[in-house]
Amino acid sequence: MKEIYCDESRQDLFFNENSITDNNKYIFIGGVMINKDNRDKIKKEINDLKEKYNLNKKTELKWNRVTTKYINLYKEIIDIYINNDVNFRTISIDSSKLNLKKYHNANPELGFYKFYYQLLNHWLNDKDKFMIYTDIKTYSDPNVLNNLKRCLNNKEHLNSVEKIYAIESHESVFLQLEDILMGATAYKKNYGYNGKSNAKVELVKYLEEKLGHPLLPTTKSASKYNWFEIWL
After folding, report:
1. What is the Cα–Cα distance from 158 to 107, expressed in whole angstroms?
2. Which of 2, 62, 73, 226 is the most buried (most CB within 10 A)?
């Protein structure tokens, strides 16, 4: 059994094109995949790390909280990702090129979950079963996650997805890990090495050092770190 924990960054750009700027136009949707058998081990490592830095286990780790004070904590989070069987995949969308009317029936929510499908469909296989967890959202369509599951369980990987759950990010260290990896990727995409936060730039460089390559779009076959850039 595989587990995938998904979240997104700047999904508001689907709904509010007036907020798009040169440094704020890329929507990211991403996830981390683990083997269910490894879940408790990795979870313990992350919670032990929180305790090491005198943080409550319920403290939410996230990209927006990367500061000089806690840079070593976040570097050790990167080490946990690197040293364990954890795969990360993300897609990026240039919101300035979105055409919701032409491709998504002028429905931002529909467009959003079409991209979610693109993230997941190419990650699944017909050999494993999957549980998928997403951060809780407010949906105009209460069946949106069931519809996503139905679309993913297509003829290419029939009934691979057993369930899609919405959970709170503060309750899942894996959603927190995903947020950090996707945050680093989005920061590099938007700012290169010229971001205003020295701590975040340092963490981007640290992740690149540990991966052994820059944070750039990858080939389709890349597994540990996979970034697919969508051009519309």
Report:
1. 28
2. 226
Give per-residue pLDDT as tens, 24-75.
Answer: 778 899 999 999 999 999 999 999 999 999 999 999 999 999 999 999 999 9
How far from 92 is each of 103, 112, 164, CA to CA, in Å?
17, 12, 22
| Predicted structure pTM score | 0.91
Cβ–Cβ under 8 Å, residues 75 and 83:
no
pLDDT for 174-225, tens place per residue?
999 999 999 999 999 989 999 999 999 999 999 999 999 999 999 989 999 9
Among 65, 68, 76, which residue's Cα sits nearest to residue 210? Answer: 76
pLDDT score recorded for residue 195: 92
Per-residue burial over 197-210, b if 16 or more Cβ lie within 10 Å, else e, is: eebbbbbbebbbee
Residue pair 175/133 in contact by the 8 Å Cβ criterion? yes
Mind giving me the DSSP string for 86-142? EEEEEEEEEGGG--HHHHSTT-HHHHHHHHHHHHHHTT--SSS-EEEEEE----SST
Spatial separation of the C-alpha atoms in residues 201 and 203, rounded to whole Å? 5
Q: Give the whole-angstrom CA distance, residue 61 versus residue 57.
A: 10
For residue 213 the two structure tokens come to 């390559």
Q: Distance between CA 176 and CA 7 in Å, rounded?
A: 9
Q: Please, how many CA atoms are within 13 Å of residue 95, restricted to the half-sphere of its CB?
A: 24
